[in-house]
Task: structure prediction
Amino acid sequence: MLIVGIAGGTGSGKTTVVRKIIERFPKKSVAVLSQDSYYKDNGDLPLEERQKINFDHPNALEFELLVQHLNELKKGNSIEEPIYSYISCTRSEETNTIDPKDVIIIEGILVLTNPQLRDLFDIKVFVYADADERLIRVIQRDIIERGRTIELVIKRYYETVKPMHELFIEPSKKYADLIVPEGGNNTVAIDVLASIIEKNINIT
Result:
């Protein structure tokens, strides 16, 4: 089993990179775990308090569960990935069953900030994009997918996204084995990453 960690700032193009990577391999050979599924369940808090959560801080995540799940997959066991809602800021009672595969990709803004998680990665990737480009993508995504107003998105960007990026995410780039500028538009870097994955696994 090959475990690949893919990090990068919010709106950097991580999801596009992951999609273009998994398109290169049979579905039966690759599984993807999202960091976003492992945000702590905050159902005990009033909705108003939940909406103030800083999702760009490592403390918002249950890294212990993600590490546990990766270790179970390495042992050949299936796991139940949580399903998290940004609308309610809670976990669903339902889960997503993930079976062991030749390649496990873990994608998220903070996955390179946690030492225990980093130790499980065979390949560490950081997807880089210009700050202005990331902001545009964040505005588009949060309005369409998360039902936020443009005013709220911009306020959140300057209060939490930008400072947390500078404090935690950007510094984690030093742990990367491969840096991918321009996200999913960098076909050369994606080719290199796909080639590395292919050389390290046996896909039939």
